[in-house]
Amino acid sequence: MTRERDGRELYLEDLAPGQIYRSGETTVTEADIVRFAESFDPQPFHLDAGKAESTFFGGLAASGWHTASLTMRLLVGSGLRLAGGIIGAGMDELRWPKPLRPGDTIRLESEVIEVRPSRSRPGQGLAKVRTTTLNQHGEPVQVLVANLLVVCRPES
Question: What is the pTM of this model?
């Protein structure tokens, strides 16, 4: 079951395993990669295309943390619009199977894996969500399985 952003906020009761939420797209430039790396991950394969040629990556690659930041930005604007915001309670998995390159256009697919109400805190629960960041070829550049705190629908 695929869900597109319809503008309404989602509560714990709205979520079910198998639901898929998609995002829009964003394109990363060489300047974006270098700017992020200068501030947060200043390694040669993120900073200099020439030097990056002789590294493991064989060319300029975005920091995994840059990919994670872009993923978060896309997630906030995606169809997975949680009431109260996207609040992480931890993650089970974070992988970067392929590097993000200059000129790549990425999008997200977020699948609800599990939903469970809290036993100790009425009014909220956890949703386990797998968010896959895909490049323009449909190849995953990041896979994140996160446990998100989700509020229950207020009683009327």
Answer: 0.93
Strand order across the 2-3 sheet: 2-3, 20-27, 105-117, 124-134, 140-151, 87-95
Q: Which residues of 78-109 are buried (b: 16+ CB within 10 A; e: fewer)?
A: bbbbbeeebeeeeeeeeebebbbbbebebbbb
Question: How buried is 12 (Cβ within 10 angstroms: 0-12 exposed, 13-18 middle, 19+ buried)?
Answer: buried
Tens digit of each residue's pLDDT (9 = 90 or more) over 32-86: 999 999 999 999 999 999 999 999 999 999 999 999 999 999 999 999 999 999 9
DSSP annotation of 152 reads P
Single-letter amino acid, residue 84 = G
